[in-house]
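[Automated response] Your request has been received and processed.

Submitted sequence:
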Amino acid sequence: MTDRIDALQHFVAAAGWGAAERRPLAGDASFRRYDRLTAGNGARAVLMDAPPPKEDVRPFIAVDRHLIGQGLSAPKILAEDVANGFLLLEDLGDDSYTRLLADGGGDELALYEAAVDLLAALRGRPAPAAVPFRRGDWTAAAYGAAAFAAGPRLLLDWHAPALGLQLDEAATASFQAIWAALWQALPRETATLMLRDYHADNLLWLPDRPGLCRVGLLDFQDATMGPPAYDLVSLLEDARRDVPLALARALKARYARAAAARDPGFDAAAFEAAYAILGAQRNSRIAGVFVRLWRRDGKARYLDFLPRVWGHLERNLRHPLVAPLAAWYDRYLPGDDLRQGICGRAA
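Generated structure:
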């Protein structure tokens, strides 16, 4: 631990920020830590500490360069130490969507329209180029059947046991078969860059910048190439804050209009189906992740979000293509148990 502290201090000093004041910023669900550095002249930067082997900064670096190359507002990298997992980043400020909306200082419609417009603009953009590093090249992976099925499995591995439920082999096998069928049913669109955690906590409002650059982007190291509806689900079915249903419907329609304007072959019904399937997948995965954060990592605060996540999932399950999954949940993991059981056990 001492060696890592020494390495971090050396990195900061070598980057010219050794005399800066350092204060912690809010953490996230990973092993990464963030500090704000403030120099004597008022200049600021953000220090990312992503300890290997638990974290790998190469994907962040590669995607960051790609987004900036696309004319978007990702933080510029001021200094990097890939081997030790240290990055010094441009400080994009404190005006996250979450904070602005909580304080009443943000126009919810304007903020979300800008975020949706950015997603629509990413459709059809080229994939990030391979980036060479000493530890090996980084290439954007394709989001495939294995990743699609692995996410919801976390619900069986963590959520069900927390409720004291023992699922037999038949229940597990049918769950896996349903997800395999849903992957086959998922409408195929041209893969686009999925940022994966595109929601209010990870978006910053930069009103002095033009157009799409008004949306500052954070936390995209898990990006992959996959279905374009995924990030729209992440934005509109936010686990941490309620997006009014009427607003969510209007924003989906806005996205569909923009997509159709770019692609005459855009199929709105197919996109709606993809949205429901990916919503069911993402919300099932998050339900497992949040319980894992509680039981494995001691982060009980994530349990507060579970009722909202299950509410999103219940709406996803209304789509006809997701009916087999709805029947499985009704049989093996009833909604009342998921909403009330874990929160009661954690109290």
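Summary generated for your ticket: The chain has a mean pLDDT of 92. The chain is about 50% helix and 10% strand.
If you did not submit this request, please reply to this message.
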